[in-house]
TrEMBL record, chain A:
<keyword id="KW-0408">Iron</keyword>
<keyword id="KW-0479">Metal-binding</keyword>
<dbReference type="Pfam" id="PF13085">
    <property type="entry name" value="Fer2_3"/>
</dbReference>
<dbReference type="InterPro" id="IPR050573">
    <property type="entry name" value="SDH/FRD_Iron-Sulfur"/>
</dbReference>
<dbReference type="GO" id="GO:0008177">
    <property type="term" value="F:succinate dehydrogenase (quinone) activity"/>
</dbReference>
<keyword id="KW-0411">Iron-sulfur</keyword>
<dbReference type="GO" id="GO:0046872">
    <property type="term" value="F:metal ion binding"/>
</dbReference>
<dbReference type="GO" id="GO:0009055">
    <property type="term" value="F:electron transfer activity"/>
</dbReference>
<protein>
    <recommendedName>
        <fullName>succinate dehydrogenase</fullName>
        <ecNumber>1.3.5.1</ecNumber>
    </recommendedName>
</protein>
UniProtKB/TrEMBL annotation, chain B:
<dbReference type="InterPro" id="IPR015939">
    <property type="entry name" value="Fum_Rdtase/Succ_DH_flav-like_C"/>
</dbReference>
<feature type="domain" description="FAD-dependent oxidoreductase 2 FAD-binding">
    <location>
        <begin position="7"/>
        <end position="409"/>
    </location>
</feature>
<dbReference type="InterPro" id="IPR003952">
    <property type="entry name" value="FRD_SDH_FAD_BS"/>
</dbReference>
<dbReference type="InterPro" id="IPR027477">
    <property type="entry name" value="Succ_DH/fumarate_Rdtase_cat_sf"/>
</dbReference>
<dbReference type="Pfam" id="PF02910">
    <property type="entry name" value="Succ_DH_flav_C"/>
</dbReference>
<dbReference type="InterPro" id="IPR011281">
    <property type="entry name" value="Succ_DH_flav_su_fwd"/>
</dbReference>
<keyword id="KW-0274">FAD</keyword>
<keyword id="KW-0813">Transport</keyword>
<dbReference type="InterPro" id="IPR014006">
    <property type="entry name" value="Succ_Dhase_FrdA_Gneg"/>
</dbReference>
Amino acid sequence: MSAELAEPASKIELPAGVGGGGEIPTFDVHLRVRRYNPEVSEEATWDDFHLTMYGTDRVLDALHKVKWETDGTLSFRRSCAHGVCGSDAMRINGRNRLACKTLLKDLDTSKPITVEPIKGLPVEKDLIVDMEPFFQSFREVMPFLVNKGHEPTRERLQSAEDRERFDDTTKCILCAACTSSCPVFWTDGQYFGPAAIVNAHRFIFDSRDDAGDMRLEILNDKEGVWRCRTTFNCSEACPRGIQVTQAIAEVKQAILSRKI
Amino acid sequence: MQVHKYDVVIVGAGGAGMRAAIESGQRARTAVLTKLYPTRSHTGAAQGGMCAALANVEEDNWEWHTFDTVKGGDYLVDQDAAEVMAKEAIDAVLDLEKMGLPFNRTPEGRIDQRRFGGHTRDHGKAPVRRACYAADRTGHMILQTLYQNCVKHNVEFYNEYYVLDLLTVEEDAVREDGTTYKQKRVAGVVSYDLASGELHVFQAKSVVFASGGAGKVFKTTSNAHTLTGDGMGIAFRRGIPLEDMEFFQFHPTGLAGLGILLSEAARGEGAILRNSEGERFMERYAPTIKDLAPRDIVARSMANEVREGRGCGPNKDYVLLDLTHLEPAHIDAKLPDITEFARTYLGVEPYTEPVPVFPTAHYAMGGIPTNITTEVLQDNDTVVPGLYAAGEVACVSVHGSNRLGTNSLLDINVFGKRAGIAAAEYAKTADFVELPENPLAYTTELLDIARNGTGDEKVAVIRKELQDTMDANMQVFRTAETLNQVLRDIASFEERYRRINVQDKGKRFNLDLLEAVELGFLLELAKVMTVAALYREESRGGHFREDFPDRNDEKFMKHSMAYKDDHAPADGSAESIAGIRLATKPVVFTRYEPMVRKY
């Protein structure tokens, strides 16, 4: 049955208790946040906050509660608050995640929840890091469509299959959760890092693009894909579910075979 | 004082700002100032699609699209502008495809198209497949594609530079009829560097405002935390009027209690809205196109179902979006992100369970008035040379009293492009306007008041109370009584705002201070919206007055124009309420006469 043909009944019997129900439970959390403000001290410290939160609350809600009710100096980036803008990647209980996509109830609330800035990028203040090195790597892989052919008057044709080929890597929101989870990136800030490779992949495997060879050359550099040690941290960290390690492997393979 | 000089300064790096930057950057020395990073803007949260009459899957033409836009806006749309948008939509989509946007494809390899609310074949006969899309992340793809092309063209960004003031000068000028007036001219903007806390002056021949909307005046909203109406507020404070601010769109399907958007594309793909009795209640309100009626009608119908006791859940305060009759594979292919939102945030599995939804504040139809060249107007007919606006911050007006789904992504592309070209072309012929004396004075004072306050009021508390009263009294149903309540509340918030205490006294990434400044804009804009809503004693599109439930073309077929006027008396008369003066502007008609709006 295709969705096109499905004509649902005007009225249906709804199952009992549909759409959830009952009171939203509250619970107590102990938030432990890494603080750093060079205007005040060169030393980073841990600050503890005890909060009562709701079952639908996210780590971002807890941070807001602290900022808005207790300590206005707590600083972190955020914008959309539902996992599409990529502002609030941070290290939560030692794992890179988006604060707005991490529900408190899914964490172990019997222990303190630790929140730190993502690693490998210079910390500016509290949970805010300098994103410039990250975006620099992104810019270096030619993250844009290059088409040397004659420009058609209508759209370029692309089969649904060709479109599907790079679908996974179009989902990237440049949050840096992957790159800043990579042990190679921690020790060698010159490494392009997973996010830049993901964005190169997005164009290398786009049938409309003509600059795959140039990108492969860039990523064949000593700071390119060969630094990847396949630890899968990046794939685990990606809040968009991108198979990052696989994308890197596909780029490696393309360099070896020079066949896209 | 740090002064930068550019031909063109663009404020905002969302869809409209970056689309403008791609054009302007190739023609003139251009800087983009943004309070976020470029790919953080809320364009990225748009989901369903971007309409253009490509006719790739069925018969369509731009005239039908124009008609739908005009009717969707309940005839308050300027028809010349709607025509421009519908015509240029086709090239706008093709431009994006050529820039690399990965649209979904038809079996023939063309850009695929799907149905969307209010978009119809042949003037309302049936829904038409007009929305070009990339799964349910079309806005994300547009934002990424535009940023990628900004990188390609080496566009210069100043990230986390929060613009706080528009620098203008006024000159005596004479109209053709001999009357004199004060002509505004643009000199530049003042920006606050979040990282250092330093102020920077950007002197520019052209300034383009593309800073987005103001959804955070409401509590339940699909909007980002950062959408605080800064651009509208800055312009208003500098004497630019705001047009049609009473019209705010409530998107029908926000996740209940959270406001997170679930795209209209869900209904475009066949999802059904149901009440607690399992009824497909839209059959009652829009018998022809049912769940695909425009957003204002669906949102009001939902609110009405809840009000009449047919809401779902323990508090009977939401309705259900039912996708359970759709194939899971179809859902995964066409609606992957929104179904994940339902799973992540509500723990609901859309394959098998209907999703709790309720209207969420979504989009400002009003904003800074512009003509179709995106030049900003200082009154009904006088442009401010060198000042442009595009996207949600602007009011062209292509959306009238209710925007059709997908027309915002279209708006930012069509008018963003126009703004970029116009701003650069103007800069080529113009000279810099001399900066006003002491250009930082206003901004320094604004920040000092916020930073040095020693009162006992918290920004977050006032903001929450503002959002609460706006949700309770300025949402889909309004009366004189509820609107006056909002105005009384805002008066007390304004008084309390003077006694705020910002805890963070530092210079580095002082986001505490930023939120205080943002609240100032929210208060100002909420008041403008409410005053305009009180004045408009009729119901039209997104503005529904229960005490005036009918559209009144004789009296109100005109745009509202709100001016900041400190001399406006606080005597409670409708046209001038404490600091705001209301005027009107004629609607532009070309080919469509107003008709009763039925679907």
